Amino acid sequence: MSTPDTTVVVVEERRRRLFVVPLIAAVVAAALLGTSTFALWTKYAGVDGGTIQAGNLDLTVGSTAYYDVSDDRADSLGGTQIVPGVFGHPITLGDADDASAWRIVPGDTVALVYDDVAITLEGDNMVASLSVTQKSGAQLNITGMTYTYAIYTRGAPTPLAQGTLGGAGTLLYLTTDEPDPGATGAGYDGVLDADGTEIHGVSSDNYTIVVYGTFTDTANQDPHATGALSAEQVDTLSGLAITLAQVRTVGGQFNPAP
């Protein structure tokens, strides 16, 4: 009776060991798969490259002065030369309560002279327009006053561009002095682009910009008559601005406007 008992015990022992060993191996294999530390290959190679430099658009005004340039004054040629052929007498503009301020009357022309207007353009595709614009701070109330502007190369008698405040006129288009794909020569020099617009090449230059205000009063000063009175009205010019604005619709390097 003792022999069968011993045999049974030995068989159960082997079965338990055979079962435990495969179980441990399976657990270890699963652990290795879940926390793998092997690396996927990656290779980097450097390439030659340059730097990209941003361009620039800048505008400064050196000085501002005001002149009476009425050409029918007897001493019209005895004043300060503003630009060749245009002479004026220095005046002081002020507020409505300033008794020493110059007062305009019908037939007068006033000139606001912005001198030493310095332009800087940098960029292979840089094209910009230069003009005089009317901002919200400019209040033009005097009946019969008209304002025009002219842009001169310093010392030149003929304006490069001229226009009317708030109205039509030519803009002065400037571009960096880069070769023009649509023209011959080394660069722009007042050439025409594909749309026939004149463009001047410049990297940096100085201009004189003059705003002319002419008083051609047509209002009846009789308070009992029909018509607006212009007496004692005030124009505030502090909101005028010289504007240099980048454009991409003008220039030989761009597609013609549709």
How would you characterize the overall build of this protein?
The structure is a single chain. By secondary structure, the chain is mainly beta. It is elongated and about 100 Å long. It starts with a helix and ends in a 12-residue tail after the last strand. 19% of the residues are buried. The N terminus is likely disordered.
Task: List the topology elements.
Layout: H1 2-34, E1 56-68, E2 80-83, E3 86-90, E4 109-122, E5 127-134, E6 139-140, E7 145-153, E8 161-164, E9 172-175, E10 191-192, E11 198-201, E12 204-215, E13 235-236, E14 240-246
Parallel strand pairs: 9-11
Antiparallel strand pairs: 1-3, 1-4, 2-3, 4-12, 5-9, 5-14, 6-13, 7-8, 7-12, 10-11
Structural class based on helices, strands and sheet pairing: mainly beta
- Low-pLDDT residue spans: 1-13
Specify the overall morphology.
elongated
Helix count from the secondary structure assignment: 1
Largest sheet: 7 strands, antiparallel
Average of the residue pLDDT scores: 77
Number of DSSP strand runs: 14
What distance lies between the first and last C-alpha atoms, to the nearest angstrom? 113 Å
Q: Proportion of β residues?
A: 25-35%
Lateral arrangement of strands in the main beta sheet: 2-3-1-4-12-7-8
- Give the proportion of residues in helices: 10-25%
- Count of structural domains: 1
Write down the Rg.
Answer: 41 Å
Helix and strand pattern: HEEEEEEEEEEEEEE
